[in-house]
Amino acid sequence: MLLERRHAERDRRHDGRVPAVFAVRNLIGSRLQLGQAEDIAPSGITLRRPRDVPVLPQTPLTLLFDLPGAGIRISVGGLVITDRRSGPFRRTGVQFIELSSESAARLAEFCAREGSSPRGMPMNPR
After folding, report:
1. Where are the domains of the chain?
2. CATH architecture of 2-116
3. pTM (2 decimals)?
4. Phi and psi for 37 in degrees, rounded to 5?
5. How many CA atoms lie within 13 A of 81 on its CB side?
6. Which residues contact 54 (CB under 8 A, 6 or more apart)?
7. Which tens digit of pLDDT belongs to each residue from 47-73?
8. What is the torsion angle, in degrees rounded to the nearest 10, for the CA atoms of residue 109, residue 75, residue 84 and residue 37?
9. Is the pLDDT of residue 24 over 50?
10. Is there a contact between 73 and 65 (Cβ–Cβ < 8 Å)?
């Protein structure tokens, strides 16, 4: 049964994720927290965060990060989709909901470039 849920979670994603490791500042209410990206797509991101601060699904937040190698700062509103413990951290899936058209274009370029690089994963690995 657990395997089926994991498969279903992957199927919900419309854009292929690419691995990415960079610092992400996230603001939930008035609480600022530092996290780390695990992967990113034009529609969302998976964060690694401190395990002692769980976040409920559907919680709005604001993310601020610099795309590696692009010199571009992205500020985006998001919505927590999943949040669970993963070893000494939490893995939090965030869907982007407020993103400027310029930032959306930069994210798409970054994901296409990283997805086609030898170290990246294919954009749609089905």
Report:
1. 2-116
2. Beta Barrel (2.40)
3. 0.80
4. -70, 145
5. 16
6. 83, 90
7. 999 888 899 999 999 999 999 887 889
8. 50
9. yes
10. yes
**Nearest-angstrom CA–CA distance, 66 and 61:** 17
What token pair was written down for 47?
A: 């964060």
| Per-residue CA distances from 126 to 19, 76, 95, 120, 121 (Å) | 16, 28, 21, 15, 11
What residues contact 38, with CB distance under 8 A and at least 6 apart?
19, 20, 21, 46, 47, 48, 91
- Token pair belonging to 65: 């990060």
Q: Which residues, listed in sequence order, are joined to residue 96 by a DSSP beta bridge?
A: 78
